[in-house]
Amino acid sequence: MLFDIMDYIREGEYALLMINLASILFVIFCTLPIHEYAHAWMAVKLGDDTPRLSGRLTLRPMAHIDPIGALMILLVGFGYARPVPVNMRNLKNGRKSFALVAFAGPVSNLIMALIFTFLKTVIYVIAVNVSMPANVYTVLASFFSFAASINISLAVFNLLPIPPLDGSRIASLLIPSKYYFTIMKYERYIMIGMFVLLWTGILSKPLSLLAGLVTVGFDFIAKLPFTLLGLI
């Protein structure tokens, strides 16, 4: 993400730079809160009132934003918000419910990404079949494209089975408790190692490839109804 920003500056694409930054801020202040709200909502529905009592059953951005996680989105395109506190002992089905709570966050990102991809397609269909000023089309299409891309990246990143990401909570269903909680003791050090791998590109490159595949799939889904109607 940082390299994309530098490329825009180097090539003088300041309009795209501003659209990119606007979409990043939109994701940080609007979609990250939805991600965390999804965790909180699912936990409360499954019997744990801890998120509500902790003030996390809300869409208020400042209740969820983590400064370092937000900075990571700006720098490498992958990041996180403050984890929602969940007490597994209060959940109706223990670890199974805990995994569902974890899964709710990435699913919310994928739903938002599909919505943004669909809106981008609608803008394209209007531009092709009706009319739209070129600059308006560029702004709207680029914004929705960036927003969809970042949401997909967040979903893919958070599904990694690495503590403290959501994927590690889902993986707890497959790992015996004694091993899982032993791994979680080293969560901070694992997270530091993950940051290093992201920054050096060792982890971000395969994640970007996977996110790209999801993007292609979402583009196909979003375009399909318009293709069948002969509008594309």
Can you offer a commentary on this structure?
The radius of gyration is 19 Å and the shape is globular. It has one domain. The chain has ten helices and no strands. The protein is mainly alpha-helical. The chain starts with a helix and ends with a helix. The chain is 72% helix and 0% strand. The mean pLDDT is 87. The longest helix has 35 residues, at 95-129.
Strand content: under 5%
Number of separate structural domains = 1
The number of distinct helices, counting runs of at least 4 residues, comes to 10
Residue runs with pLDDT of under 50 for 5 or more positions? none
Task: Let me know the number of strands.
Answer: 0
Please identify the structural class as seen in this structure. mainly alpha
CA radius of gyration: 19 Å
Work out the helicity level: over 70%
CA-CA gap between termini? 30 Å
Average residue pLDDT:
87
Helices and strands, in N-to-C order? Answer: HHHHHHHHHH
Overall 3D form:
globular
Largest sheet: none
